[in-house]
Amino acid sequence: MNIERFYISKIVVAMLFICVNIFAQEAGLSEAEKFYGTELKSPKKVQHPPFEWGDCTVCHTDAKGEEALIMEPPELCAMCHEAKDTKKFIHGPVAAGACTTCHNPHESDNAKLLVASSINELCVSCHQDKDAFLRDTPNIHPPVKDQCTNCHDPHTEDHLYQLKADGKKDLCVMCHVDKEIWTSTVTDKHGALDRPRKCLECHDPHGSTNPKFLIKDTSKELCLSCHSESLTRDENGDKLLNIGKHLENNPDWHGPILWGDCAACHNPHGSNNLSMLNKPFPRTFYEKFEEDNYICFQCHEKEKIMDENTTTATNFRNGSSNMHFVHVNKEKGRSCRACHDFHGTKEYPHHLRAKTKFGKINFPIRFIETENGGSCAPACHARRHYDKVTPKVNLK
Ligand code: HEC
Ligand code: HEC
Ligand code: HEC
Ligand code: HEC
Ligand code: HEC
Ligand code: HEC
Ligand code: HEC
Ligand code: HEC
Ligand code: HEC
Ligand code: HEC
Ligand code: HEC
Questions:
Q1: Tell me, what DSSP letter sits at residue 104?
Q2: 3-state class of 384 per DSSP?
Q3: Is the pTM of this model over 0.85?
Q4: DSSP letters along 166-234, please?
Q5: Can you give 113-176 as a three-state secondary structure string?
Q6: To which H or E segment does residue 357 belong?
């Protein structure tokens, strides 16, 4: 046998040994243990010291432990342990003094004398709806899959549901520290976080069938659950556009909205840009053109606006003269908002808006599409034409 073969056969034997061992261990596990794990399981029996001492009369009225207890839990346990019902919210079985539904008073195979080999198996032994939830829900929040006690105290706490901190936000940011910093320092904060349920307005703390544990199928449905009325912007009492109604009245929706993804452009936790956008966008009608100032270029090619002359980058051109460049790419450049609506439109193609707001007035743009171009006559300007094939001459 050559040396290589020798080692290969050793490895094969070792692997077989490991497999058989894992199989033997697995085989000894209950179905629940396989699903929930066995993190509490102790290599040797855990004995409760007063039981280990052998003097049964510490707790029983007789030495054989066959007769009554000298007193019932929780008073019995409180002889030696701190009371477990001292805070504002008390877990059902603790309030009922049923310590022994979770702890074996004598000995156990598990740490803390618990009656199950993992925390989650213990919890779902009574909370059976959560057992079904954990098994059937595709996206479970990792700390929930790990141990319910990451967030809930098994006995008593000062917060609703025996949570370790207020479950609506304080609890979340104990772990998601970045969200605490972000939501409190961004310039454009989201009013959703001032609603009574804060983070839970949008997320399910345990998990959900949706990505990021959202309580609605898509971010669009989630957003529209609040933005189907004219909400008031905090500082100045301004009314926000009723997006739900706007989309209903303007059925030609912009791509990301068709996919149901408002978060493609907006950060639901607030941002430092206009209207909580993920990337900057001009705040005013006219702004000096800067490539980095347009969230649009996350999805659209910037050549549309950057190339002064083109025969391919855009259809908004007069011959090869790029009309996007002419309108947008300059010192006093117009925002895309002047001509497009990024949510939805109806009258015109290419998400061209029917009216554009300039100062306090809403001017109609009066777009007319032609075979190779189009024309518009915004406000009191004369009609201007563009044509990809036969450039038009527009008088000043
Ligand atoms: C720390 C207190 C404590 C000590 C010490 C203790 N027991 Fe118990 N024992 C209990 C409690 C509490 C129960 C009731 C369990 C329940 O509610 O299911 C119990 C129940 C029992 C029972 C009834 C059957 C069962 O297991 O539920 C027997 C038998 C028993 N004990 C035997 C003993 C013996 C023997 C000793 C001494 C070696 C002993 N116990 C020491 C607390 C104690
Ligand atoms: C006579 C005193 C005494 C009584 C009564 C008593 N315990 Fe204990 N218990 C102890 C001691 C001592 C320890 C080991 C020290 C420790 O871990 O706190 C202990 C440990 C424990 C532990 C494990 C703690 C750990 O960190 O591993 C649990 C759980 C527990 N007891 C529950 C109970 C419950 C439930 C009762 C009532 C049914 C009870 N005890 C009654 C003395 C007592
Ligand atoms: C719903 C199940 C449940 C009930 C009921 C319960 N416990 Fe516990 N207990 C736990 C779990 C789970 C832990 C382990 C906590 C951990 O490791 O974070 C624990 C830990 C403990 C400990 C050790 C750590 C500590 O907090 O001091 C003691 C002592 C204890 N329990 C006593 C009691 C007493 C006394 C009662 C009755 C008043 C009681 N428990 C009722 C689940 C329970
Ligand atoms: C022995 C059964 C039992 C076990 C084990 C158990 N619970 Fe409970 N739990 C209850 C009961 C009973 C209530 C009270 C239900 C009510 O008031 O509607 C309750 C209430 C709760 C509540 C508050 C629910 C509400 O609607 O007010 C939470 C949260 C909770 N349990 C979490 C846990 C966690 C986490 C664990 C595991 C550490 C656990 N439970 C283990 C029986 C149990
Ligand atoms: C990441 C923290 C976290 C973890 C881990 C966690 N929970 Fe919760 N739980 C919460 C919050 C927050 C609420 C309050 C939800 C609300 O107000 O609607 C809650 C509420 C509950 C409630 C009462 C409302 C309901 O949904 O029925 C129960 C019962 C409960 N949790 C059980 C569990 C069980 C069982 C586990 C482990 C499988 C667990 N929780 C793990 C954060 C958590
Ligand atoms: C005990 C720590 C802990 C607490 C408390 C906690 N989380 Fe988490 N959360 C995690 C961990 C760990 C992950 C997985 C790692 C990651 O993606 O950041 C996670 C992931 C998430 C994710 C998905 C992240 C992703 O990119 O896929 C969301 C959403 C989330 N948590 C929201 C919440 C909310 C809302 C709360 C409060 C109800 C909360 N978390 C409380 C630890 C925690
Ligand atoms: C729970 C209700 C609620 C949900 C859900 C919600 N919002 Fe809001 N949103 C508000 C409130 C209230 C305001 C008004 C206060 C403010 O300006 O922040 C607001 C304001 C806004 C603003 C204007 C911010 C500004 O100051 O210019 C935008 C943009 C916005 N939301 C987008 C979204 C998006 C995108 C979603 C979905 C990811 C969403 N919202 C989900 C309640 C909600
Ligand atoms: C207005 C609804 C809304 C509120 C309120 C909200 N979220 Fe989110 N959250 C979302 C959406 C939508 C996503 C998915 C974003 C995406 O797909 O890009 C998300 C993603 C996340 C993520 C994972 C991705 C990331 O940005 O890190 C975490 C973690 C998270 N949220 C935590 C929180 C916490 C903590 C709070 C409370 C401080 C909170 N969220 C409040 C809607 C919300
Ligand atoms: C393609 C990017 C994009 C998508 C997707 C998008 N938005 Fe917007 N949204 C914007 C831009 C850009 C603004 C700034 C509006 C302006 O300047 O007129 C804005 C503004 C807003 C405003 C503030 C309106 C006001 O009156 O100031 C709200 C509210 C809003 N969006 C909600 C939503 C909702 C809800 C969705 C999903 C249905 C969504 N947005 C999807 C780009 C987008
Ligand atoms: C002065 C009005 C105006 C402004 C400002 C404007 N556009 Fe356009 N845009 C048009 C017209 C008109 C069309 C339709 C061209 C055609 O197909 O005839 C168009 C078409 C488009 C198209 C479709 C593909 C193409 O290029 O033909 C995209 C994408 C687009 N614009 C993005 C933007 C972006 C991003 C901005 C801001 C950086 C912007 N537009 C600014 C008028 C404008
Ligand atoms: C997350 C990706 C994404 C972002 C960001 C984005 N768009 Fe779009 N846009 C699309 C998709 C996909 C389409 C094609 C579907 C459609 O016509 O709506 C599209 C189409 C368009 C059209 C119509 C094209 C045509 O030929 O009819 C215009 C105009 C437009 N976008 C303008 C903008 C403007 C202005 C912005 C910046 C505020 C922007 N988009 C940001 C994805 C995006």
A1: -
A2: strand
A3: yes
A4: -TTTHHHHHH-HHHHHHHHH-SB--GGGGSTTGGGGTB-SSEESSGGGBSSSSHHHHHHTTTTS-PBPT
A5: HECCCCHHHHHHHHCHHHHHHHHHCCEECHHHHHCHHHCECCCEECEHHHECCCCCCHHHHHHC
A6: strand 355-358
Structure tokens at 56: 């049964």
Q: Would you call the peptide bond into 93 cis, given omega within 30 degrees of 0 as the criterion?
A: no
Residues paired with residue 309 on neighbouring β-strands, in sequence order: 321
* C-beta of residue 67 within 8 angstroms of C-beta of residue 75: no
Mean pLDDT score of the chain: 93
Chain-centre distance for alpha carbon 367: 41
Cα of first residue to Cα of last residue in the chain, in angstroms, is: 95
Q: Ligand 7 in contact with 267 (CB < 6 A)?
A: no
Q: Do residues 210 and 217 make contact, with C-beta atoms less than 8 angstroms apart?
A: yes
* Neighbouring C-alpha atoms within 13 Å toward the C-beta of 31: 3
- Ligand 9 atom 11: residue of nearest CA: 342
Q: Look up tokens 């925002």; give the residue.
A: 335
For the chain, domain boundaries: 30-164, 178-275, 279-387
Q: pLDDT tens across 276-291, in order?
A: 999 999 999 999 999 9
Q: Which of 137, 141, 193 to mutate to test the pocket of ligand 6 (most atoms within 8 A of CB)?
A: 141
DSSP 300: S
Q: Is the pLDDT of residue 128 over 50?
A: yes
Burial degree of 120 (CB within 10 A; 0-12, 13-18, 19+) = buried
Q: Is the pLDDT of residue 19 over 90?
A: no
Distance from Cα 258 to the centre of ligand 7, integer Å: 19
